[in-house]
Amino acid sequence: MKIKYLPKNVFLDTNIYEEYNFLHGTKIHNMFEYSKKGIVKLYLTKISYLELKERIQVNLEKAVKEQKGFVDSINKTRILRNLNRYDNIAKPTLNIPDALNEIFKKLDNLIEYCNVELIDSNIVDTESVFELYYRSLSPFSIQASKKHEFPDAFIIKTVDKWCEMNSTKMIFVTKDNDFNNYRSSRIIFKHDLIELLDDISIYYDSICSDQILPEINRRVKHFEDELLFRIEEELEERVSVDLVSCDFFNLKFSKPIFMDYKVTSIMPEYADVSYYVKVSFSVDVFPTEKDVHQTVFPDNIKPERITSEVVLPCEFEFSFNRKNNIKLKWINSNEPINLRLNLSS
After folding, report:
1. What is the C-alpha separation between 201 and 203, in angstroms, rounded?
2. How many domains does the chain have?
3. CA distance 342 to 98
């Protein structure tokens, strides 16, 4: 099998850490593990390091605020206090500065333990960044709020300059569309961390004395029915329907259909596999309030059966000690599955 060339140097933009829940996400851990093994070399800039800490703080403060709001809503309704599950619910007593110190300490330990290198942004010519700003060139947009894009500009110029100084290339993983028009022969932009991890896993497996990927491929095919059954068992418990100004009932799912899989890590005792399935669903939806007001004859107001589908990423852990030891870790990164329906018609 021909292995595609991949630069060893990898930079993850802050939005990638945020997408995969910072230090808790399996995909982030997978990348740090590959960096610790020396399969890749992971980088941050001094500015992206500060930006990462700032986003951790924003998300933590938001989570505490939302939890307090949930408790306030329980207290306001009062009736829910009659249920045992809500009887002893209380506002969070989390000390945010202490919590931040704990998370930042974990971050610094990971950086040191996994050989992550911080690039100093002092290597960047400031005038070149301002030239991009005044000419509205990538990563700056033409929007009036483009002043907020200065951190991105310094980050990309720092990475680019570092690559020039070291005569090398960098894989830059980001979801930020502001980088779409940035051109550099030294930077390879990637938008999907899972695909990159799969490419790294393929390379890593190719240099190991015992190849694991052929066995993973065999198990994915051999245990397909069992894997799909495990997903189907837990599917309904994880669904959050996102419908505005309408009621729904009789939600039904079809059996999941296997689409693809990616191996995101190869550890000494197991491999992490991202397993994609397509699931069709149907639901009865009552007309929106707007529909009711626009209807001349009330008898015409009837629920409508709507059918759609969603692609879900599922995470499995394939253990090497037993061939049938396959663990479903979560569906959709353990986040609620929002079913968005087009009701405009």
Report:
1. 5
2. 2
3. 44
- Asked whether 176 and 62 are in contact (CB, 8 A), the reply is no
Please report how the helices 46-77 and 96-113 are oriented relative to each other, as an axis angle in degrees rounded to 10.
Answer: 140
Do 140 and 261 fall into the same domain?
no
DSSP string, 245-284: S--EEEEEE---EEEEEEEEEE-SSEEEEEEEEEEEEEEE
Which neighbouring-strand residues pair with 273? Answer: 263, 316
166: domain CATH number?
3.40.50.1010
Q: Do 135 and 262 sit in the same domain of this protein?
A: no
pTM given for the model? 0.84
Q: In terms of residue numbers, what domain contains 53?
A: 9-196
Length of the chain measured in residues: 345
Indicate whether 201 belongs to any domain.
Answer: no
Instruction: Give the DSSP H or E segment for 105.
Output: helix 96-113
Spatial distance between the Cα atoms of 266 and 270, rounded to a whole number of angstroms: 6
Closest to 238 measured CA to CA, from 169, 341, 337: 337
Closest CA to 198 of 110, 276, 99: 276
Residue 160 lies in a domain: yes
Q: Are residues 189 and 215 in the same domain?
A: no
Residue 1 lies in a domain: no
Specify whether 304 is located in the same domain as 272.
yes
The pLDDT tens digits of the residues spanning 235-284 come to: 877 776 655 445 677 888 899 999 999 999 999 999 999 999 999 988 88
